[in-house]
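User: Assemble these into one structure.

Assistant: Restating your components, then the assembled model:
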Amino acid sequence: MTVTDVRKDATACTMEVISEFEAPIAAVWQLWADPRKLERWWGPPSYPATFVDHDLRPGGNVTYFMVGPEGDKHHGWWKVVAVDAPNRLEVDDGFADDNGVPNPEMPVTRMVLTVDAVAEGRTRMTIASTFPSVEAMEQMIAMGMEEGIKEALGQIDAVMLAA
Amino acid sequence: MVVDRRGPRAVSEEEEVDRLFHALADATRRDIVRAALDGEQSVSALARRYPMSVTAVQKHVGVLEAARLVTKHRQGREQLVRGELDMIRYAHILLDQFEAIWRDRLQRFADVLSDDEGANE
């Protein structure tokens, strides 16, 4: 099992996803640091991502687009807040318009990645997301529908409405 | 990983996810959900709130009912729409969606990692 723990705080609109991999830290970090590797997992198979700018320095820009089955293009961006390779990356993650220009109308998520060793050749990765508000989460879910994430959600393994 | 753990309720869960998604896909419906979280709303009041007919609002409410986000009650001649969850629980449902997105992503992450390890051997 890749994901070992998920912590959600509905009041604060935050989520932490903790996962572990049988791989050294450097290999895990490369999946973020190498845009050709990053695009192999960031988008769902039906909406593959292509990273255009990929400057993982403080203040640096990362831009990407995802292309859907109908040829529809969806642009996104990260702004690098802080980086400490190969252990930590903090970015603001947002949506962009059709020309790849950040869309100020759309919500921005703060994402903090931490990577550390649990044992020789075993690495833990924590992704902490902070969403600005409940409305922002709604808006992002609605946007994500267009980006093919619905197929991912069909696989959810928690009983969502029953609790 | 996720697929293996799906039990006999998987189909109905999927249907629920579909309904929830469909419900949240529309800006008016999201607004109705939020309005109903604050208290009961009459269908006629909702129709005044949006540039649409009572029938159109009824349709939206029907979609939200199917997703179990609201229920409808009759009070005299008025039809009232009541939110079936509080804001915290609603926020939880939304966070569950992000969890699913990340679980899916991390499965691909693991696949890429193991592919590359294999290639290096």
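Chain B has two domains: 1-85, 86-121.
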